[in-house]
Amino acid sequence: xxxxxxRARDRxxxxxxxxxxIVRLQHHEHGRCPRCGSxxxxxxxNSLSRTWALLISAFxxxxxxxxxxxxxxxxxxxxxxxxxxxxxxYFLQHNEWPLxxxxxxxxxxxxLLKMLAIAYxxxxxxxxxxxxxxxxxxxxxxxELMGRWSMVDVFVVALLAALVxxxxxxxxxxxxxxxxxxxxxxxxxxxxxxxxxxxxxxxKE
Length: 205
Known about the structure:
Layout: E1 13-15, E2 22-24, E3 30-32, E4 39-41, H1 47-67, E5 71-75, E6 78-82, H2 84-93, H3 97-126, H4 133-146, H5 152-163, E7 170-174, H6 176-194
Helix pairs in contact: 1-3, 1-6, 2-3, 3-4, 3-6
């Protein structure tokens, strides 16, 4: 038979985000870790508002990242522009479906799913929901881990722009969507970092 769940905060304890040491804060909201000197808090300051600000900015950047050209190709004097989706369609038309699938998952679907997952977690925390806390914690961990794979398109365009420079014959230049895409990925990564997952387990006030 298990008793009621007691939080570390209820006992005046908090974990150091740097070295993992346990610090007794008593009645203070903030303190210093005696081991490494880092700041220790019960909860990240303004975690929800900062995460929402970063997440909304990422949603805004998602639109030009998928509608504007991410790459411009000049071949024999003829210029063509490609968005992420047009690149996926191009590879599908040439039976390169594995490459098309990788680009679609890493550059279109995963960033959107990550932003929706963080938004869902934020809404449930603000509503004070106590249901499926373990599942939401796992969802947050997955969303935080998948962020790095969204930079595949940026790396590919940067590599092509550096290698394919054949003067008047063929050249590749990054398009305006590259900046928007990189900004979206970075904003979602910061949104996941600023969110405090301990808020998921806080009881409803």
